[in-house]
Amino acid sequence: MSRTAAVFAVSSGFVAAGFAGAGVANAAPVTCVSPPSANQILVDGTASCGATAAEGSRSTATAADSGTAVSVAETGGTSNTYATGFGTALGASRAGGTSYAGAIGGGIAHSWADAGSTTIAIAGWGSGATAEAAGVDCVGPLSLALNLASGQFCILGS
Fold it and tell me: Can you say how many angstroms the Cα of residue 92 is from the centroid of all Cα atoms in its chain?
């Protein structure tokens, strides 16, 4: 009887620790900007970002709470990414294109803009979104992708 009580007490302690948030990753937000850095990479705890941009271009990547954001721009492009909660956001642009990628709570978002177009990809938990010149793709119920140049869009995994 005392062995069962001890196992229950230890098990209850682990469950209580889990509900209290013990072991949950928590990192301060990190923001990478290029320029002024040619290639900036930052890591704080479990959040990480990377941004690189050629002359005349601009990249910004922000990540928090186990998110990973990467942003690349060249030849006058602008790329912006944001990731949080185990999300991964990848953005790239060139030739005057503007890309936005946002991954929230475990989603994967990919946005690629070229030749002056604007693309937007947003993905939430368990979902993925891609927006690029070749088309758009949404997987999962928390997904949105748009290509404003072509008018293509998808939402909610459709």
Answer: 13
| The pLDDT of residue 158 | 60
Task: List all residues 6 or more positions away from 11 whose beta carbon is below 8 Å from its beta carbon.
Answer: none
Distance between CA atoms of residues 26 and 64, nearest Å: 8
Q: Which residues touch 133 (CB under 8 Å, ≥6 apart)?
A: 112, 113, 114, 115, 117, 119, 147, 149, 150
Q: Which long-range contacts (CB under 8 A, 24 or more apart) does 27-30 make?
A: 27/64, 27/65, 27/66, 28/64, 29/62, 29/63, 29/64, 30/62, 30/63, 30/64
pLDDT, tens only, 34-76: 999 999 999 999 999 999 999 999 999 999 999 999 999 999 9
Of 31, 107, 99, the residue nearest 64 (C-alpha)? 31
